[in-house]
Specification:
It comes from Lachancea meyersii CBS 8951. Residues 18-37 are annotated as: Disordered. This protein is an alpha+beta fold. It has one domain (3-18, 33-113): YML108W-like (Ubiquitin-like (UB roll)). 31% of the residues lie in helices and 30% in strands. It has three helices and four strands, in the order E-H-E-H-E-E-H. The chain has helices at 29-34, 55-70, 98-113, and strands at 6-16, 38-51, 77-81, 86-92. A four-stranded mixed sheet has the order 2-1-4-3. Strand 3 (77-81) and strand 4 form a beta hairpin.
Length: 122
């Protein structure tokens, strides 16, 4: 399996930007819409242990990822999966330590991945 066809996960830390409630109301709605609600800091790029075309492995992997990483951190973690092989994972800054758990999970499943070839698909 080549890394160029594998899913890649970008891990970002998210900081919510406090809204400035003081100040004049002369700024229009168009200016308010431009103010970011959060900032993001790049933490890591991880190569996931399956290729873009392998939807069964993707589903199985994310079921396990949800159970072990996401559910215990519900409300502080979110991700989006694109069809072109990119996964963007956002972690609340208060759960920064979870980034190392995600890294360990990905590394652990890469090792296990070679043993899972004969398992039935979901």
């Amino acid at each position: 399996m080549g890394d160029d066809r594998s899913y890649r996960m970008l891990v970002l830390l998210e900081d919510v930007v406090e809204e400035d409630t003081k100040g004049d109301d002369s700024t229009g709605e168009s200016q308010k819409a431009e103010v970011p609600k959060a900032t993001h800091e790049f933490v890591d790029e991880l190569i996931l242990p399956f290729e873009i075309e392998d939807m069964d492995k993707l589903n199985k992997w994310f079921d396990k990822f949800d159970a072990e990483i996401c559910i215990p951190n519900e409300g502080f973690i979110k991700y989006e999966i694109s069809s072109d092989g990119l996964v963007v994972l956002l972690l609340d800054r208060t759960r920064e330590k979870v980034a190392s758990q995600v890294r360990a999970f990905v590394q652990g499943t890469k090792i296990e991945g070679s043993d899972d070839e004969d398992e039935p698909s979901i």
